[in-house]
Prior knowledge:
80% of the residues lie in helices and 0% in strands. It is mostly helical.
Amino acid sequence: MKGFFPVFLPALLISFGTAVSLGFSRFDYALILPSMMERLGWSYSEAGWLNTANSIGYLAGAAGTGRIIARFPVRTLFLGGLVLTSVSVLASGLVVSYPFLFLFRLAAGIFGALSFIAGSVLVASLFPQDSRRSGTALSLYTGGGGFGILVSGLFLPLLFAKYGAEFWPRAWLALGVAGLLLTWISSAASGGPELVPEDPVDSASWDPRSFVPALGGYFLFGIGYLIYMTYFIKWVEDKGAGPGMTAVVWGVLGLSVILSPLFWKGMLSRHSGGRSIGLSIGLTSLGALIPLISRSLLAMLLSALIFGFAFLNVPAAVTAMLRASLPRTAWGIAITFFTVVFALGQIVGPVLGGVISDWTGSLSSGLALSVLALAGGAIVSLFQRG
């Protein structure tokens, strides 16, 4: 452990970008959503569409990144994407109009995808000849999303308890400012030529048809996990949890994400096929199932713990699989392709979960769909060969 931080400091610094591109931009919507629904009078479907807007933007950003990642320095795309993501998050606190909120959620998704993909390529390039260290670095990178969840969980529920539901615009403003601060911290990782892959992109060196099971599993994971992450806190509050308990549940989720690399780093360096992906998605399915079995506060905590432990390892497992299976020149385009498929699942998830919940009059039905999609994704991914 003595030499851990110097060796992995670049990955740790870059991981603050994941806190912005995933944590503040996407996941923390769940924490602010109950107050927005109360003040703005939304249905579950309207709430779901706003997170689907973020996913539509993520799809557009992923597709666009595939075209520009070979033309610009990767670190420039990473940091520029983070700045624009943070500004989009901040702007969500300046409007109350649904169309404008939709627009800013869309923009946050576009620029979040750009920064996340660029950051993945940067981290995958840190240790090109060392699969063990590369697996650790990838786990640290995706685990940064847990930092964004934890920070918001420590403060936002208590601020909502003090100021009420009308605090929601200031919550977005605070997250936007925090995103700009973390972008500045991440910029410290911009030194060193090893952070920017200089090899030309070789699109002919990979065949998507060889990864159909992993692509199918990733698509189903996108549907299932974002239903859970959109509506879980609303479900927790509907079951009677106060601000303190909400903060604890969300904080447990974030802390579990942060600590998860301690377990996953070894598996990512050993398995190049779909085993790591399937196991990770399977655990998220278990985490999503628990609230449907028990409504106790302990069940909420256990659900957050298990789900947080696994869900952000799925992108890391996908990146590790591609890194082990493909030449370095194909990493960028392959990661982008998988991200596009993932984004398609995320587009479907929140709005479908919201429509089903409105139709049945119960949020539990939306969570049940999340469990089914995640379980299916886990099974399909296991058929992926290394």
